[in-house]
Amino acid sequence: EQKWLGRNGVCVYDQQLQHEYIRKLKLRDKLKHAIKDKKISVYYQPIIDNKTGTVCKFEALARWYDEHDGFIPPSVFIPIAERYGLIGMLGQQVFEKACADLDRIHRCGFRDVIFSINHSVKEFSQHNQEYIFEIINNYNLPYSAIMIEITESTALDDGKNILEILAAFRERGIAISLDDFGTGYSSLAAIIDIKPDIIKIDRSFIVDIEHSKESQMLVSLVIDLSCKLNVEVVAEGVETQAQLDILSSMSCHYIQGYYYSPAVAIDDAIMILKARNGDISIDNIDTKLLQ
Ligand code: C2E
Ligand code: MG
Ligand code: MG
Ligand code: MG
């Protein structure tokens, strides 16, 4: 059996790596089929306007349930899709489903609702973005009902080309949202370069906001700066009343997190909107939003 000394002096068995590699390839093939068979579904997590306390947006999040392996999280399959050239197809499918569902929501009468859809780093370099305009037009949705979420590494890695694509989005009225803000290396430069409409402060700063002076300082700094630049702020991963209270005291514009609701299927998203308008009893849904 072969082995070698790893970087930290740890013995790593070749065989173990091989197993890991084979597992990944199997997952890749499964993912390829799941995409081909349109088995990737999309769930929607409410984003709450913190001034009014109402749901105004949803983030579209890809979901994959495999009959054999069960629920496989995006943190596992998105990197695989990116690595093996599947992210274009996957992204397109998510986008298509999200637009079909948003069209349904609008036709239910909730015409102010906006969908925020993740767009991967690799999609910019590997694929044509034209499908975004085509799908939006096919469903006759206003461009202003769609927001594209990118991470700051996306924008800065590939430089100018991405800024041009983003400019084309913006020209049509599609808003740009800077995801996982604070986790990259050039956060402030990214605000200036990308000029996003929205910044989403990463969950890692929210999770310890109660106890970490540093996180508190960063979040309040980002909110103040954003205010000056006319950029709105979403706090990601808000789970407790205490976190919400701190964010409210900082006048954070939008709240997203399990405190209100996890991502839910489209039918439940519509229920949440109906409850928002008082059309149905809130007893019918069991997320915090409905208590
Ligand atoms: P993200 O875009 O930052 O999405 C937010 C993630 O945080 C979601 O995880 C969401 O379920 C989770 N989350 C929301 N509120 C809370 C909370 O209060 N507590 C905790 N612990 N987590 C919370 P999810 O759905 O597992 O997605 C993970 C990441 O995968 C996303 O992070 C995004 O980067 C990527 N992703 C998901 N769907 C897509 C997609 O359709 N396309 C692309 N390119 N990436 C996607
Ligand atoms: Mg996101
Ligand atoms: Mg995020
Ligand atoms: Mg995040």
UniProtKB/TrEMBL annotation:
This one is known as Bifunctional diguanylate cyclase/phosphodiesterase
Domain named EAL: which ranges?
24-277
Q: Which domain of life is it from?
A: Bacteria
